[in-house]
Automatic annotation (TrEMBL):
<protein>
    <recommendedName>
        <fullName>Phospholipase/carboxylesterase/thioesterase domain-containing protein</fullName>
    </recommendedName>
</protein>
<dbReference type="Pfam" id="PF00756">
    <property type="entry name" value="Esterase"/>
</dbReference>
<dbReference type="InterPro" id="IPR029058">
    <property type="entry name" value="AB_hydrolase_fold"/>
</dbReference>
<dbReference type="InterPro" id="IPR050955">
    <property type="entry name" value="Plant_Biomass_Hydrol_Est"/>
</dbReference>
<dbReference type="InterPro" id="IPR000801">
    <property type="entry name" value="Esterase-like"/>
</dbReference>
<keyword id="KW-0732">Signal</keyword>
C-alpha cells in the first residue's frame, strides 16, 4: 500500500559557521564531478505541528512519511511500517539527484525496505529554475553538513537511532555529496552508498583520510549500454582507490535501462543489514 505523504511548515533557528571552520582543500575533492539527474515530485498533505525544536510537536504513525520545512532546509522523514520505539534503528540520510527534492526519499526508501530503516531526506543547497541541486564548494559543503549534523542531533532526541549505523546515501550528484560527507566527516557516519556518481582523477592520494578504516562504501553504477563503459570503469577504479585508503569499499555494475532498478535498492538493504548481522 502506498505510504501517505504529509507536510507543514515549521521553523528552526540555525547556527552559522565561520570561514575558519571550513576544511582546507583536499585532493579528495578532485574525485568528483557533477551529473544531472531528474525525479518527479509528489504532492503532500499536513503532518506535523509547529514546535520549538526541529522535531517538537510531531504527530506520527507507523508506516508514514512526512515533509518538515525548517527555516531554510525542508526535510522529509520516513518511519518504518511497524515502528518499535525500543529498537535502535539504522538511519539512511538520503541526498537526492539534481533537479529533484527531498521528497525523492518517498519513492526510494520503501523499495529498499519498509521496515528495516528510518530515513531522512534533505533538499539540495542550490536552487535553480529547473529545481534543486547540490553545490560542492568548500563553504557550501561545510555549511550543509553543519546543518545536517545539527538536524541529526535533534532527530536522535525524538527517535531511537543507532549512533554507529547512520549511512549517507544518494543518487547522481547526491551520491557525490554523500561520499564527500563520509570522507570529510568520518566520525559522523558509518558509511556511504553512492548510486551513479561520477569520478575524476581517481589516482588522487587519500593520505589525509587515515580515520576511515571503519567506514564502508557501496558504489553502484547502472548502465543500459556499452556507452556507459567509462562511467562503470571509473566506479571500479574509485572503489579500488577507496579500498587502498583502508575503506571497506564495494563497487558493483548493474546492466539495466532503469536508473533506479528494484534489484539495486534491494542490494542496498542487503548491504546495510549484512553489516548489522555481523556486528552482533
Amino acid at each position: 500500500m502506498k505510504e501517505p505523504h504529509y507536510s507543514q511548515q515549521f521553523w528552526l533557528n540555525r547556527g552559522m559557521i565561520t570561514d575558519q571552520e571550513v576544511d582546507s582543500h583536499s585532493p579528495i575533492d578532485e574525485l568528483f564531478q557533477n551529473k544531472d539527474e531528474t525525479q518527479e515530485k509528489e504532492e503532500t498533505e499536513p503532518f506535523v505541528q509547529n514546535g520549538s525544536g526541529i522535531f517538537d510537536g510531531i504527530h506520527w504513525q507507523t508506516g508514514s512519511a512526512s515533509s518538515l520545512h525548517a527555516a531554510q532546509k525542508p526535510l522529509s522523514l520516513y518511519l518504518p511500517e511497524r515502528y518499535e520505539s525500543n529498537y535502535e534503528y539504522p538511519l539512511i540520510v538520503w541526498l537526492h539527484s539534481d533537479y529533484s527534492d527531498e521528497e525523492e526519499l518517498f519513492d526510494i526508501i520503501p523499495q529498499i525496505s519498509d521496515q528495516n530503516f528510518m530515513a531522512i531526506g534533505f533538499r539540495g543547497n542550490v536552487e535553480t529554475q529547473e529545481g534543486c541541486k547540490w553545490g560542492n564548494s568548500e563553504i557550501e559543503r561545510a555549511l550543509f553538513f553543519s546543518e545536517l549534523h545539527d538536524t541529526l542531533k535533534e532527530f536522535r532526541r525524538e527517535f531511537h537511532i543507532h549512533p554507529k549505523r547512520i549511512y549517507l546515501a544518494g543518487l547522481g550528484t547526491g551520491a557525490t555529496m554523500a561520499l564527500q560527507g563520509m570522507l570529510h566527516y568520518p566520525d559522523w557516519f558509518a558509511g556511504a552508498i553512492a548510486i551513479n556518481s561520477l569520478f575524476s582523477n581517481v589516482e588522487s592520494p587519500l593520505a589525509r583520510f587515515r580515520s576511515l578504516n571503519e567506514q564502508r562504501t557501496l558504489l553502484i553504477e547502472t548502465t543500459a549500454s556499452e556507452q556507459s563503459f567509462d562511467n562503470s570503469n571509473a566506479t571500479l577504479k574509485a572503489g579500488r582507490l577507496l579500498h587502498s585508503a583502508g575503506i571497506d569499499a564495494t563497487s558493483e555494475i548493474y546492466k539495466t535501462s532503469e536508473e533506479i532498478d528494484p534489484q539495486v535498492l534491494l542490494r542496498v538493504n542487503h548491504w546495510i543489514m549484512q553489516a548489522i548481522a555481523t556486528s552482533w
